[in-house]
Design a protein that fits this description.
globular, about 280 residues, eight-stranded mixed beta barrel
């Protein structure tokens, strides 16, 4: 089955960078243990598995170390793969815990895709979790941007958001993988998002994904959707859209766009380009 994997970089920046994902499309999903084995062998932060289910597609996502309920960059990659096979269009997806859509279309020589995330929610993080996360990364309370209090954010998966006051602090992000995995598992987090606002509509982020056995993800659509929902919840002046630069410190600069509607808890449209590897 490994030979059936398509390798696609999602959210690339004009043909460079992006986050590689595996995409497997077949008549029926393999057993979970087989999907986990394949994803471990592929070695990317996520592999999406999709099979037709009536008028929809049943989709599951596996990292090298675990299954996750939703993955944005792998969904963008899947949208591109489905459009290549079936033509430009909108594809309805059934996930473990949500029903979403992804659009895929050709844009000249490039592929584009846009997903509608699961519903969003956010809440201020408890002090014990904030302190543990700051200790993990070697930050202090003074490093945090008071305009964006630390929060648990959600758009199909749970993340912790720490917003920083300086780009240099974001660039210095480092942590010990096993300690990060333990913290994320104890608190039910898929990732920890570190963010710096260059201005109201442009964010630079880094994403620690130790729960999936990956130290850092170069582009994270699920976390960007959750960030968009959080900014709406706190009344941030986002103007209906934010752009997210991620992966720059890894040498894999990625570009993510999140469009934010007015309805509290509503889906976030996350879009970007995709290229075959």
């Amino acid at each position: 089955m490994e030979q059936d994997i398509e390798r696609i970089a999602a959210f690339d920046d004009h043909g460079q960078g992006g986050n590689p994902a595996g995409v497997w499309i077949g008549a029926a999903l393999p057993p979970a243990a087989e999907m986990a084995r394949i994803a471990h062998g592929v070695g990317f932060s996520e592999t999406a598995f999709a099979a037709p289910e009536g008028a929809r597609w049943r989709v599951r996502y596996f990292s090298p170390a675990s299954e996750v309920p939703f993955c944005g960059h792998a969904t963008i990659a899947l949208g591109a793969a489905l459009a290549r096979r079936h033509g430009d269009g909108r594809f309805a997806l059934t996930l473990n815990d949500a029903a979403i859509t992804v659009d895929g279309w050709r844009d000249g020589a490039r592929m584009q895709a846009a997903l509608q995330s699961p519903p969003t929610r956010s809440g201020i993080a408890p002090d014990a979790l904030i302190d543990a996360a700051l200790d993990l990364f070697g930050y202090h309370r003074a490093d945090l941007d008071s305009r964006m209090p630390p929060a648990r954010i959600h758009a199909g998966a749970d993340h912790l958001l720490l917003a920083l006051t300086a780009r240099a602090a974001l660039g210095a992000m480092d942590y010990e993988l096993e300690a990060g995995r333990t913290l994320m598992q104890e608190h039910g987090l898929v990732t920890i998002v570190l963010a710096w606002a260059e201005h109201d509509q442009l964010f630079h982020t880094r994403n620690a994904f130790a729960s999936g056995g990956v130290k850092e993800d170069p582009a994270t659509g699920a976390a960007s959707a959750a960030l968009g929902g959080y900014l709406r919840d706190i009344g941030w002046p986002h103007g209906g859209r934010i752009d997210v630069v991620q992966g720059e410190d890894m040498g894999m600069r990625s570009l993510i766009t999140a469009e934010i509607g007015a309805a509290a808890g509503g889906s976030i449209r996350v879009s970007g380009t995709a290229r075959m590897l």
